[in-house]
Amino acid sequence: MTAVKGLARWVPAVAVARRYERAWLWPDVRAGIVVTALLIPAGMGYAVVAGLPPETGLYATIVPLLAYAIFGPSRVLVLGPDSALAPIVAAAILPLALGDPARAVALAGLLAIMVGTLLVVGGLVRLGFVTDLLSKPIRVGYLNAIAVIVIVSQLPALLGFSIDASSPWQGAAAIVQEIASGMIDPIAAAFGVGSLVVIYALKALRSRIPGVLVVVVVSTALTALLGISTLLPVVGALPQGLPAPALQGLRLTDIAALALPAAGIALIAFTDTAVLSRTFAARRGDSVDGSQEMAGLGIANIAGGALGGFPVSGSSSRTPVAEQAGARTQLTGVVGALLLIVFILALPGLTQFLPSATLAAVVTSAAISLIDVRGFARFVRIHLVDAVLSLAAFLGVLVFGVLEGIVITIALSFVAFVNRSWRPYKAELGRVQGLRGYHDMSRNPAATRVPGIVIVRFDAPLFFANGAIFDDWVRSRVRAAGDGVRTVILAAEPITDIDTTAADELVELDEYLRVHGIRLVIAEMKSPVVDTLARFGLTDRFSPDRFAPTVGAAVDDVTGTLRGDIAGTRWDAATGRDAPLPDDTGDRPPPEDPPAPET
Question: What are the TM regions of this chain, as residue ranges (predicted)?
């Protein structure tokens, strides 16, 4: 059993196979059939963008899908050539290929292997933690931006014209200009808009047959029966040939020349894939290990590069289509890959009648499903900082690109975190008659100080940026309490760390209080933080008697040394109310006589 669990850790297909349910089979097969209609044109199209023969796009789809189905942790992620990677691939390999198509294919394969190797190494050394930086606001903003980018990219095909634009903004402007100029193709638009209407109509009727599958089959049949394949853009027939090694003619100098592009592509591919994987996993109630995701993506790239492909990542257009079609596991990707092989071998002409406008409608409907306006509105309503981060991710991806937009947003997340830690919530605590414990005096007007004691709480780790703020604030609370303060109790449970600068500030505060005849007691400080103070050489100053397990224990110890009656510092469990202290012993009962030694 242990061996099986260990194998499943790095080969997720083992765990999926053990838990696979019969009810998942048809949804997986159905989703695979639907996604195949996208895999063909997307693979061929992005191969051309990367400066490679169209068939390499299919090889870069088939092999990674099969490899990821075995080693990838995401249940629904669809891998394949990507619009963000294809231009970088072209820029990296074409100057080295010098017009030789065979050498270009070999260089693209080497590049994919290098990218995959970097990702596998990153997964093995557990660098997948970077996915923890992709908070929900970032993911919502990212997917909203991706949806807009995909929709803008598909509108020309949906309406039967083409544009040349390098950014979503230029694309949107060009689309408006083409529409205003009357460049819409009526036949293509009829197929495209009609397909969208059918998809959403069947969705509204809760049809058990996916609208995506219906429009692909019906549109292809109509185009063939009416003989109008020459009157509107169609996907076209599949190229011949199966995936095979194509790494001939490479040189050692090629590795050095491709090193920097490989690092950049690896970062973009993993960042893009991680956001998709984590987002879709959350929507399904699953979780994905970032390091495992990195390794699975790396193995898929190595396999694809070794068999005639080029670098790939998670697809933001094909993954939502798979989810909408009901995909349950990576069997969807396996079905898609096998169908591609079948079509290449037996039915290469099948897609020559599939209208590009219908395909654009399928992608557009999937992209629309990614838009989460309600989620962004919720951020605006309940947490303005999260709303700003989500908007920053949205605009960053649209303006600067996928990787740059995410990096900008993560940087802003760090700024927000530092700001919260720099100026955290602070509270002076007091007693409220009838309530157990010590409570924030700013939120409980009835709270009062324990005579002679100031109790403070600082809700953040102490570090170089907030140490002085902490020091100044505690001094201000002591001054506000007036004369008679003899003890300051620091409720240190929220202080999870302290650095050398903040430790020096703590020492300065302690010295300031000592000069004014006030003793600093630290309550509820976590043991690792106490150990940190010891490593800083502060054991003599902050000896064990300066620490208390709880605020209540610290108050009890202090009030036990004070003369006179100090009411309201102990809790009477019998009455559920504060109880006054005995006149003669402070807050502690007289000690019992020690037991006689055993003989």
Answer: 29-50, 56-71, 78-98, 104-129, 141-163, 183-202, 209-235, 255-275, 325-346, 353-371, 391-418
